[in-house]
Amino acid sequence: xxxxxxxxxxxxxxxxxxxxxxxxxxxxxxxxxxxxxxxxxxxxxxxxxxxxxxxxxxxxxxxxxxxxxxxxxxxxxxxxxxxxxxxxxxxxxxxxxxxxxxxxxxxxxxxxxxxxxxxxxxxxxxxxxxxxxxxxxxxxxxxxxxxxxxxxxxxxxxxxxx
Length: 162
Fold this sequence. Notes:
This protein is rod-shaped. The chain has a domain of 105 residues. The protein has 162 residues and is mostly helical. The N and C termini lie far apart (115 Å).
């Protein structure tokens, strides 16, 4: 007769999980730093109206975001247990993890603010282009009114004053 031995909880001993969460947070910091660089590049391309370059940056951003999502999934079990896990940490460990989390929060905020400003700039540009196109359409309509029609007849409207 065999007895089953209970598997120790991987989250029970901080010496087991603190190095792992530290590595994941460091990876997350690196990814967000890369996303921050791409966000700055995105802003520059929007300001210079460089559409092709902007699209290339957006593609690279998507790849980084996919990597961030993967790391977030790995961090999920730690987030779910954070209340109980953080109670097992000494002050030094708490401080180290807190500083990583604060750095992440700072990067996320900076990226979000820049992205919001970029969104507003693109929307303003879209509205301006729409207004210009509308003006062109009206201008063409006015030009067509003063041209001969397809039957060779004279213009629909003429200025007879002079």
